[in-house]
Every structure is written in C-alpha cells, then in structure tokens.
Amino acid sequence: MKKHLIDLNDFSPTQWNEIIALAERIMDNPHIYEGSCRGKIMGTLFYEPSTRTQMSFQSAMLRLGGGIIGFDNPTASSISKGESLKDTTKIVSSYSDIIVMRHPTEGAVKAAALTSDCPIINAGDGGHLHPTQTLTDMLTLQKEKRRLSNLKVGICGDLINGRTVHSLVKALSCYENNSFVFISTDELQMPEYITAPLENWCKKSAIDDAVADLDVLYMTRIQKERFASDAEYERQASRYVLDMPKLKRAKPDMIVMHPLPRLNEIAPEVDGDPRAVYFKQANYGMYVRMSLILIMLNYDTMKPPVLLKGRVYDGIKCKNAKCIVHFEDYLPNSFIDNAGVLTCEYCESGN
Ligand code: NCD
Asked: By the 8 A CB rule, do 298 and 36 touch?
C-alpha cells in the first residue's frame, strides 16, 4: 500500500524532518541520486496554471532519472469531453507510479485519491492547501535560519485564499515556540479552521506594526482568481507592499519569503537585499520535491490509506460552494463531527 500526500499532516513531523534532511543531502551530492527513479513514471495533472510547482516537480523527476506524463491544459484532454475526476485519476494512476495533481477546487485532490491506484501528491487544491510548498518553505527555513522552531513568523496578504500559508501554519505550529502575526485586511483574514487550534498568534492590519521583531516575513499575492468579481479583487489589490523603507525597520537577520508569483506586494528594489530569499526558496523547492518523490516511491505500508474517517449524514452537503462535492456528485458527503460542528472531509469547512 502506498501513502498519499493530501495534507502535510498525513506525514508526521519526524517524516517532515526526514524529507528535509534528505533534500539537504541531495543538494550536497546530487549526482548520487541521478538514476534513482529510473523506470518510474510521474503523472502531472495540472487543472490550474503553475510555473514553479509543475516545473520543479518535472525537473525533480528528470534529475532522478524518471519519466513524466500528464497535462497542464485540461482543455486539451478528455476533461473537455466531460470526463470525471474519478475516471481521469483511475486511468492515469494505472499508467503512473506517482501522481502530482493541482486543481482549482477545494478538496479535489483528496477526492481523486479515493480512486487512485498510485500515491498522489496535492500540488494545490483551490484556496485550501499546498503541502509541497510548505516542504519548500521548511527547507528554506532550515537552510536560511538553521531552525524550524523559535520563530516569529509574520504572514501578509491574502490569508483567506492563500493555500500556501494554510499548510505553512499547520506545519510550523507543530514545532516548539513558533508564533504567528497575521497581517491582512478584515476581509482576507486566516480561516477559522487554521486559527482555531493555534495558541500563539495575533492579527495586525499593517506591515509597519509587525515587522520590527519578526524572524520571517512571508508575503503572499492577492489571489485574483478566487474572488467573485473584479471589483471585489480591486478593493483588496495593492493594499500591502513591502518596500525598502518598511524593510529598514526589520531585524538584520529577518528573511523575506514569498511562494511566488509576485505581483506588486514586494517592490523590486527589495530583491537585492540579502534578506530577500524568495528566489532561493523556489530553487529549494526542486530539491525538496526530489526528496519527497524518492521517499514516497519507497514508502510501503501494510495499512491501506484511510482517507475518509467520518461518516455521511442524511441530506447534509458541504456549505462551501468552492468544495469539490459540488462539482463531482458521486462523492460521499462525508463529515467529521468536531464537538457538534460537522467538518467537511474534503475542504475542512465547518458546517
Ligand atoms: C502559489 C500557489 O500556486 O498557491 N504558488 C506556488 O505554488 N509557488 C502561490 C500563488 O499562486 O500565489
């Protein structure tokens, strides 16, 4: 049986540390790992645009000696003929040893995993999660700060729709003594399912109010594609811009991270500052994905992956209109009862 990576918490912090440690070893001696995936095939199913995630996965597999199949334009595949996520996954998983999937709908990769015959990696499901970006971010912290604990992390921008920061907070909160400062407008705050389990966090509405004592400032793009209208997006766009006057207030060893692509939330003048690590961060992503592919292809367990742990409640369907259950109607509407609140098992929304 093979394990999937839908949410980073599908793996334990010990396993995250193993993935990061192997990525560091690969960076130090890449030639040792050339050919370690010879004969293996990775299917990349990208239902949503991507540059870094898709190409770093592809480059990772090619550097390991494996092959790649897949699409990044679903309109050029049978999806344009109306094929379900279930059928596409079933077929591609029979051609592949591992699948990497990005999808615009929350919970879609978990839904796909229900029918996948090979391990599947979530490369971003709508505004929900992005676990491999978080592995990238963790390797960046390890390389640039030499630690994953005792960090004060400011996260700025579109915190409601930014899937990278959801996975990041979930993971970093598992390490000792990390605290978070969430910098956003009232409309774009962190969702409740992320903040509810957190102990050490606060909200701010300006970068200037937070920047002076941060160890990390993680900037994010306002996610235009997740807004209901252009007018709503325009109201939120360009509200936060990190420029040199703001960066001057930060500690000399603070680092600036960004999953990219950047719009105008980091002024280009910041790129030359040694604290700006976002281009290095993108490069670390390739090594962490090499490590992840190697570990997942070699991970065997006797236990079948249990994806749905709750149950179907008569007549109840997830209220989140962006959840995959509204697009693929064969899916069981499965919920976990969290002290009387029914949590959707695909998108984690409370119902
Ligand atoms: C992010 C994503 O796709 O969620 N990019 C990435 O994977 N590096 C961030 C974004 O699109 O803003």
From this structure: no
Ligand 1 contacts CB of residue 166 (under 6 A) = no
Tell me if 260 CB under 6 Å of ligand 1. Answer: yes
d(CA 157, CA 142): 23
Query: The pTM is what?
Result: 0.95
Helix (H, G, I), strand (E, B) or coil at 243: coil
Q: How far is the CA of 311 from the centre of ligand 1 (A)?
A: 32
Nearest ligand 1 atom to the CA of 220 is: 12
The residues facing 98 across adjacent strands are 42
**How many residues are given for the chain?**
351
pLDDT tens digits along 52-65: 999 999 999 999 99
| CA count, 13 A, side-chain hemisphere, 32 | 10
In the numeric block, the tokens 């000696």 are attached to 65
- 244-265: string of b/e by CB count within 10 Å (b at 16+)? eebbeebeeebbbbbbbebeeb
| Cβ–Cβ < 8 Å for 302, 332 | no
- Residue 176 CB coordination number (10 Å): 9
Distance 70 CA to ligand 1 centre (A): 20
Q: In 174-307, where do the E strands start and end?
A: 179-183, 201-204, 216-219, 255-257
CB 181 within 8 A of CB 152: yes
- Answer whether 53 contacts ligand 1 (Cβ < 6 A): yes
What pLDDT digit, counting tens, does each position of 71-117 carry?
998 887 778 888 999 999 999 999 999 999 999 999 999 999 999 99
Strand partners, 42: 68, 98
Q: Pick the closest to residue 325 from 301, 305, 309, 349 (CA basis).
A: 349
179 within 8 A of 200, measured Cβ to Cβ: yes
